[in-house]
What we know:
Layout lengths: L1 E4 L5 E7 L8 E5 L6 H6 L3 H7 L3 E5 L20 H12 L5 E6 L1 H12 L3 E7 L17 H6 L9 H13 L3 H8 L17 E6 L8 H7 L4 E5 L10 H14 L1
Parallel strand pairs: 3-4, 3-5, 5-6, 6-7, 7-8
Antiparallel strand pairs: 1-2, 2-4
Amino acid sequence: MEAVTSFDGTQIAVSLRGLDGGSEHVVLLLHGFASDHVGNWVAPGIVDALTARGRAVIAPDARGHGSSDTPHEPEAYAHDTLVRDARAVLDAYGVESVDVVGYSMGALVAARLVAVDSRTRSLVLGGAAGDLRRPPTDSGDGGLAAALLVDDPDRITHPVGRAFRDFADRSGADRHALAAFERSTALQDDVDFAAIAVPTLVLIGDRDHRAGSPDALATHIAGTRVERIAGDHLGAPANPAFARALTTFLDALD
């Protein structure tokens, strides 16, 4: 992986596929909370599906995740910090036109990025619904941050808190960094939906009920299409139908 220095000196780890081949079709992949580019995009075969269609892929690990820097202070994630990181990555590689694909947390970043960056050609919002605000994370024992930090995970009683704690433990994530993100103001500002004027796909598992209604989200962005595939919030990207729907959408734009 390479490293890009963001606006505040934070190092953002970036995986590149096909960018040096001169492809005119570049895809930015933004992963979900407690995951990284490998778990969200590489392992399910999504990166391979994109590159097989002749697309270049830029897949960063968000700050606090994967191989990127993992600050433990909530202010390091405040407001539009992750959006500024994504723009820094695009700047570093001189990207002039990009399709932006985000999943869960990454979808919240993607929508805010597309609203402010004229380089974006299309938007795919995976595992996202409602108004694209961070969903409530009360795990019944002080919130998701507390579930991430508690010494004994058997004390976590709420299924959301336990699911993300188990997920973070399996992936070897920095739980203190994830808790700092949860305690921050990251991605709590309103999305300027009126500023999103690119073709948009909402791609979501048919058993994904965490964030609300994908159809309600589609009403915020003109011309948005909703596609449901089999799967829940954590499992949908592993369904081969996810990669097929994504590549079909992008191919149609060409």
